[in-house]
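User: My instructor asked us to take a sequence, write out its structure as tokens, and then describe one feature of it. I'm not sure where to start. Here is the sequence I was given:
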Amino acid sequence: MRLPRIPLRWSAVLMVIAMLVVPQLLVVGWSVMERDIAGKLQWHTREAADEAAVALRTAEAEGFDGPKTEAALDEVASRWGTRIRVVYGDGAERFDVDRDQGTDLVHQVGTLFFGPDGAPTLREFDETLGPVHAREEIVGFAGGGTGCRRSPAAKLLVCHAARALVNADGRTEIIYVQESSRRAVRVLYDLRYHLLRLSLFMLPLALVFSWWMGRRMVRPIAWLRERVLEKARSANPRADLDPPPGDEVADLANAFNDLLGALDERRRQNEAFVADLVHEFKNPVAAIRACADALDAGSVDEKRAARIAKILADSSTRLDRLVSQFLELARAEAGMPNEARASVDLAALARGVASAVEPSHPDVRFVIDAAEPAPVVGVEPRLDSVVRNLVDNAASFAGEGGEVRVGVKSAAGEIVLEVSDTGPGIADHDLPRMFERFFTTRAIGGDPAPPDAPPRRTKGTGLGLALVKAVAEAHGGRVSAHSPPGKGATFRVVLPAAPA
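Assistant: Let's start with the prediction itself. The structure tokens for your sequence are:
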């Protein structure tokens, strides 16, 4: 069930009222609890007295000695948390076993909040009552009686039960059972009328104060709400919220600024992505249109028809490749939902991909370091595309006589795939952009693009490394690239290892 929404201003008012009412509720609860405690203690003492009487009769019938009888009484006292004494009618004491706790959870909590209550112990209070055989609960009742007493200031509640027996020798034995409860909260109970008057006096001041505090809390939040709604209605929201510094609302506004900045950055990336996508589609579409115009112009000889067929085939292949890679990238960035995952040996996958790519690059030497099994949990076709893109990319840049090194190893619960080449490396200004969509440095002749120049896309689509990053992150992994000056480039993919 959904609770009703309470405005923050009214929440502050209700909180202040609750703080004034809680002491009164505690006093009421104390009075109810006090009545229940007295009844509970009397029941304990009656049951303990009855069981003690049975223990004495059993000991007398079976001829137990004093220590065995005392042990039986001690067991009864332990079970009920009481003090049990057995005295003769003339006042001589026979047994005295004390298992009275004197405290309970309520008393311990009360002591924590209100400090020591100064209540006497059961023995200290009992010494003020006189001899057991002369007490009114013994003298006034032939068979014994029950009742409760309170110490001065009512800080200790003591309940008792008495039983009178006649033993085999004709002597009267009195079983006297006591249990006590110390009440630290009694201090608050004694001040209940003062608390009530103080609460009534403070209520108007508390209401005014809470209303004022509520307004102070709500006003900056309302300001922030209006500004955020203005940003939501704006066509191009800017991260320029400027609240007064120094409080939590300012921190919240700064968080909104960060969010707006991230959304603006994502918007710019999407705009750049759409522009790149249009550019990538523009060339093959223009080629197809030119072929269509040539065919529409009239007769075409056999040689020209062959050229047109080749242009159409190349353009359609490029369009198909772009669409396929784009869809694969979109699925990977969405986390590859509804794709079955299983244990995949990344080492075996790397060996297979390297063997498949090697014939396409006869002038490049491949070195494989992936002998040990390296299981990960993932979608095998997607992981295959990760390894294939990295290996093909490294082989393309290694150049004639170059080397591509593929390594797979396990380290601290992770599987690390590294693909290195001995090519020209990656310029420092290009490294941060290597995993961006449609960014590529594959130009004619393999020469890197100059700084600050738009990337040339005569080779590759610029989606391969973006796809590597998206698939790795969809598998809970991460990617990185580094390129020491003049020593080629190394791409690293780190994935969680499959559970053992």
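For the description part of your assignment, you could build on this observation: Residues 8-192 form one domain. Try explaining in your own words what that tells you about the chain.
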